[in-house]
């Protein structure tokens, strides 16, 4: 079960690295503006610094999760699983905040939160 948990944690981390790329590196690109529902280049430029910062939050969650995966894989189960739970649990919490604050972004929240949800559940079950 722990292997399945780590696979879903890795998928969650990859999704969050992708979100980092969109928010921190490609925010003003037309394709990214469409993904996030930004109406204009001006709107993207006005929110660029906020998105840049938010992208790094996503990257840091992905990194914590990845470090946890490596630690579990190398035998440090307690510390590694803790990092996996904290990283994916924070991703899941962020997805819940997104859908509760902007119900129209439910699809985005589902994309952001499905892999972390599965990773949290499987990791918890593996530790029982």
TrEMBL record:
<keyword id="KW-0812">Transmembrane</keyword>
<feature type="transmembrane region" description="Helical">
    <location>
        <begin position="109"/>
        <end position="127"/>
    </location>
</feature>
<dbReference type="Pfam" id="PF06993">
    <property type="entry name" value="DUF1304"/>
</dbReference>
<dbReference type="InterPro" id="IPR009732">
    <property type="entry name" value="DUF1304"/>
</dbReference>
<keyword id="KW-1133">Transmembrane helix</keyword>
<feature type="transmembrane region" description="Helical">
    <location>
        <begin position="81"/>
        <end position="103"/>
    </location>
</feature>
<protein>
    <submittedName>
        <fullName>DUF1304 domain-containing protein</fullName>
    </submittedName>
</protein>
<keyword id="KW-0472">Membrane</keyword>
<feature type="transmembrane region" description="Helical">
    <location>
        <begin position="55"/>
        <end position="74"/>
    </location>
</feature>
């Amino acid at each position: 079960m722990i292997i399945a948990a780590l696979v879903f944690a890795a998928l969650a981390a990859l999704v969050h690295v992708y979100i980092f790329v969109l928010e921190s590196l490609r925010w003003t690109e037309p394709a990214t503006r469409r993904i996030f529902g930004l109406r204009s280049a001006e709107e993207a430029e006005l929110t660029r610094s906020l998105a840049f910062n938010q992208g790094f939050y996503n990257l840091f969650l992905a990194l914590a999760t990845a470090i946890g995966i490596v630690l579990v894989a190398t035998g440090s189960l307690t510390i590694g699983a803790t990092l996996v739970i904290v990283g994916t649990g924070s991703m899941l919490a962020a997805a819940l905040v997104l859908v509760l604050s902007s119900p129209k972004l439910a699809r985005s929240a589902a994309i952001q939160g499905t892999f972390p949800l599965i990773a949290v559940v499987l990791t918890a079950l593996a530790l029982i």
